[in-house]
Amino acid sequence: MSNHVRLAVLFLLAAVLSSPVAALEWGKPFGAAYDGPEGKPRPVTPPPAELSADERATIVVFERATKSVVFIANTAIQRDIWSLNVMEVPQGSGSGFVWNKQGHIVTNFHVIYGADAIKVTLADRSEHQARLVGADPDHDLAVLQIQVPESQLEPLAIGSSNDLRVGQKVLAIGNPFGLDHSLTTGVVSALGRTIKSMSNRTIEGVIQTDAAINPGNSGGPLLDSSGRLIGVNTQIVSPSGAYAGIGFAVPVDTVNRIVPELIKYGKLIRPGLGVSLVPDSMARRWGIKGLIIGKVARGGSADRAGLRGARETATGRIELGDIILAVDGKAVDTVDELMDIMEKHRVGDRVTVEVLRNNKRQTIEVVLQAVN
């Protein structure tokens, strides 16, 4: 046998030995029966006598709360350019939860923004057309209503957020990526955070959590370990758009204050001074610190208290009026800061307003009025 032939035989033998078929069982026909223990299912390890107390509690909370969580589909009405047929086009989806037995559903404003039609799917998988009752874009909250028998509705128990503590266990239920009734758990990571809403307003007192919140969880409930509502999941911080360990929820104390007004009035009735203010950017451009009163509503609270707005002189010059420096002793330098102070009050409350008038500081008491 020549050296070339001998080398070819060695290569062929190596290829056979290294092939998957040859490696299965050397010297045994492929597919032959095998009765060894490796060819049988492994024995099942018996479960523990019972689940841990924490696991049992989590299961109870989920099974009770999931009856209250709904899936929300946001659709737009469009006309096909060829057939001219009207059709519903999905725009997005999110979560929500049953607020009361009258069919009111709470969710995020951004979940239903721009919707021509809204469909709510309950835990029993029944689908219902919903109408928009009211919305507050500044706090990213909206209230819908569906017409169903009370027996189909399971409102969530309402908790409080002013007594939460960092490290407290929380549970989030929602429909991430359209996967209905998914549960994630975590802890309160921080309290008193601030985030920006779609209207670019600051939402105060926000709860930060590491419970996984993904697209589709928006509008779903954040619960404490007893299953009480403590927040509405609304945003995440993520470079990729998916969960990255930081989620935010609007605190339930804010929700419980706003939702009844949305149900009653369709909007949030805000307390205010009864003035219009010059934009912050213009005040900064003029080098003025504080809030410049542009106009005072005639007959309003500010007018009755004696606050003054800007006016045009006989020569056509604009003469500045009062500049608001502080409200209730808290300095204000932006419209956002003033609105944050107003949110802590109700219509009819009295506040002290410190203004700069003719280069002199004055303090004026104003009764807050309802404003748009």
Automatic annotation (TrEMBL):
GO MF annotation: an example: serine-type endopeptidase activity
Residues covered by the PDZ domain: 262-359
EC number(s) reported in the record: 3.4.21.-
Name of the protein: Peptidase S1C, HtrA family
Matching PANTHER family: PEPTIDASE S12, PROTEASE DO-LIKE 8, CHLOROPLASTIC
Signal peptide: 1-23
Family membership noted in the UniProt record: Belongs to the peptidase S1C family.
This protein's UniProt keywords: Hydrolase, Protease, Serine protease, Signal
InterPro entries: Chloro_Bact_Ser_Proteases, PDZ, PDZ_sf, Peptidase_S1_PA, Peptidase_S1_PA_chymotrypsin, Peptidase_S1C
GO biological process, one term: proteolysis
Record keyword Hydrolase present: yes
Keyword Signal among UniProt keywords: yes
